[in-house]
Amino acid sequence: xxxxxxxxxxxxxxxxxxxxxxxxxxxxxxxxxxxxxxxxxxxxxxxxxxxxxxxxxxxxxxxxxxxxxxxxxxxxxxxxxxxxxxxxxxxxxxxxxxxxxxxxxxxxxxxxxxxxxxxxxxxxxxxxxxxxxxxxxxxxxxxxxxxxxxxxxxxxxxxxxxxxxx
Amino acid sequence: xxxxxxxxxxxxxxxxxxxxxxxxxxxxxxxxxxxxxxxxxxxxxxxxxxxxxxxxxxxxxxxxxxxxxxxxxxxxxxxxxxxxxxxxxxxxxxxxxxxxxxxxxxxxxxxxxxxxxxxxxxxxxxxxxxxxxxxxxxxxxxxxxxxxxxxxxxxxxxxxxxxxxxxxxxxxxxxxxxxxxxxxxxxxxxxxxxxxxxxxxxxxxxxxxxxxxxxxxxxxxxxxxxxxxxxxxxxxxxxxxxxxxxxxxxxxxxxxxxxxxxxxxxxxxxxxxxxxxxxxxxxxxxxxxxxxxxxxxxxxxxxxxxxxxxxxxxxxxxxxxxxxxxxxxxxxxxxxxxxxxxxxxxxxxxxxxxxxxxxxxxxxxxxxxxxxxxxxxxxxxxxxxxxxxxxxxxxxxxxxxxxxxxxxxxxxxxxxxxxxxxxxxxxxxxxxxxxxxxxxxxxxxxxxxxxxxxxxxxxxxxxxxxxxxxxxxxxxxxxxxxxxxxxxxxxxxxxxxxxxxxxxxxxxxxxxxxxxxxxxxxxxxxxxxxxxxxxxxxxxxxxxxxxxxxxxxxxxxxxxxxxxxxxx
Lengths: 166, 568
Fold this sequence. Notes:
The complex is a heterodimer of chains A (166) and B (568).
Chain A: E1 3-7, H1 18-28, E2 34-38, H2 47-50, E3 55-61, E4 71-75, H3 76-79, H4 94-103, E5 110-116, H5 129-155
Parallel strand pairs in A: 1-2, 1-3, 3-5
Antiparallel strand pairs in A: 4-5
Chain B: E1 2-8, E2 16-23, E3 26-34, H1 40-44, H2 52-56, H3 64-79, H4 85-109, H5 126-136, H6 144-159, H7 180-196, H8 198-208, H9 235-266, E4 280-282, E5 302-304, E6 323-326, E7 371-374, H10 383-392, H11 396-409, H12 419-449, E8 469-478, E9 481-490, E10 493-500, H13 502-506, H14 518-523, H15 535-543, E11 563-567
Helix pairs in contact in B: 4-7, 4-8, 4-12, 5-6, 5-7, 7-9, 8-9, 9-12, 10-11, 10-12, 11-12
C-alpha cells in the first residue's frame, strides 16, 4: 500500500491555496509511510509523482453552493467528471489528471478528496477566517482517512467506499 | 454579423477568452482577453528579495521553474551578484530540460488534439500503422502488436463513457485529415510522452533538490558539488543525468520530430494561416558567461520587424525607451499611453461588465492583460521568434535543423511564419536543445575536472552589503518566449515588482493606437468552416502555446457547463 496525500491549489490566491497550506501543516506532523506532495497547480505533470500510489487523498478548495469553510468529501467516482475545451496546458484539471492516469493503466485503489469551500479568491497568501477555521478538522479527517486505509488493509485487505459528507 | 465567443471555464473564473466577429465565415476582428486579475506584483511588495522566487514560481501552474529563474536573475541584476560558472551550467540544464518537457507535452497533450481525431484512431489497422511508423523512424518499439495493445486500451477507455481529456473535441469537423493509422500513431505517442516525461523530472529533481517546485538560490544553485557526498552532485548523479539525457534525445529525434513532419505533410494549407504580426522578439538564452554577456548566449538575442530577416535589431530590456506597457485597453489606472515596467503601477480598475455576461465591451477596456510594446510595436515571442532570429544570424544548429525541415516538407523559410510553422519551430528548438543538454553536461564535467565546483557566491547574500536602493531586470527566454521580471529594492525589501510574461506579449489586447496584439492579428481573416466548431481558432491559439489560465484551478465536481460557446 502506498498512500499519497496531495495538496492542490494556488498559494497566491487566498483560499484557492487551502490544499497547499494543509500539506505544509501535515509535513510538520510525522505520518509514517505516507508521501505528502505540494502539487501546486501542476496538472498532468503530477503523474510523475503518483506512479506508485495506490491510495490517493487530495486536499483542495472546492466550488460549492454551501457556505464558505464547509468541508466536502468526495470519493474518486465523483471527481472523474468530463472536462471541456482547453486553451492552455494549464487548463488541465484534477478530473483530467485522474482519467489520464486511468488511461495509462495506473489503477488507484482509493481516491478521496477533502475539499473546503473558499470564502475569498484574491491575491493574498493568507487564508480567510472560515478556511482557517476548517484546518483543524481537515487535519483530523486526513489522519482518520489514513488510519482507515491502513486498518482496512490490515484487517480485511478490502477498502471501504462512498464516505460522503460529514 | 455573428459574434463568436470561446471562454473555457474549467475553473472558477475565466482566463483566456477569445471574442471574434465573423462575417461570411471569416473572422473580421478578434479580441483576446484575460478575465482574471492575478496581482502577483502586489503580493511581492515588502518581501525579502532573496525569497521572491518562492512566490514568483507560483505565478504559473506549470512554468514554476522559469518564473523562479527570472526572479533570482532580477535580484542578482539589481544587486550586482555574479553567478559561478558551475551554477550557471546547472541553471542552463534546468531550463533546457524545462523547454524539452514543456514543448513535447504541449504538442502531444494539447495541440495534437487539434489535428488528431482520437476516436478515428479506433478504425486503424495496427499492421498498417506499424508499417507507416517504421518508415518514419527507427524507433524499436513499432510492431503490429504494439499498436494493437494501444488500440485495445483506447477502446476500453472509450467504452467506460468517460472521455476525460478527449471530451468535447470537435471530432466530426471536416478539417481533421489524418488517416486512422496516423491518428493511432500520434495517439500512441501521446501516451508514450506521458511516461517519458519522467526523465526530465529526474534531472530537475537532482538539480533542484526536490520536485515538484524545485529549489533555486540567489547567487547560485542549491546543489553543491562533492564527489564524496550522497546528497551533492556526485559521480552517481552525473551518470544518472547522462542516462536521462540519452532517453530525452532519442524520443525527440525518433518520435517527436518525425511526428511533426508527418502531421505537417497532411495539413499544408496551415502554412498559409495564422501569420500574426510578423514582428519577433527574443532576449536570448543559455548564458555561457554572465547575463550581461549577450554574445555568449547559445540562443541569440534580437528583434525582427515586418518579417524582414535581413535586419536584426538589438534589444535591451533595461533601456527605458524600448519596452512599454500600455493600459489603454486594459483594466488598470494610469499608463494609457505606456509606462516602462520600472514605473509600472498595476493599479486595477475594472470597468468591464458585471458577470455573468455574454460579451465584453471590446470597444473600450476589455482585458486584464496589459499591452507590452517594443519600440511601439506588438511583438511575437516564443520558439518561432528564437528560430527566426537564430536563422537570420546564421546560428549553426538552427540553420541546419530549419533547413532539414524545409527540405523534408519542400517549404521556404517564409512558411515558418504560420500556424504550422510555429508548431514546427517549437519542434526544431526542442531537437536542438535535447542535444544541447549533452553540451551542458560536458561543461559540467570539464568544470569539475578543473576544480571549479563552486555553486554559490555568498559575497552579497547579507542585506548589509546591499545599496539602499537598487533596481534590476531578470530576463529569461523561456519555452513560451521572452520573460522578464523587473525589481526595485529599497532598504532590503521589494519596493516594486513587475512581470511581463511571454503570453502577455502574444495575447496582448489592443494599445492606445488601436494596434491589435499578435494573436488577435493572427486570427483576423481566418476562415471558420463551422462557427459551432471553431477548430481553426483553437489551432491558431494553441500554436502560440498560451499560458495564462494557470493561476486558478478550483475544482468543480458538478461537471456541468464546462465551456461556453455563444453564436449570435
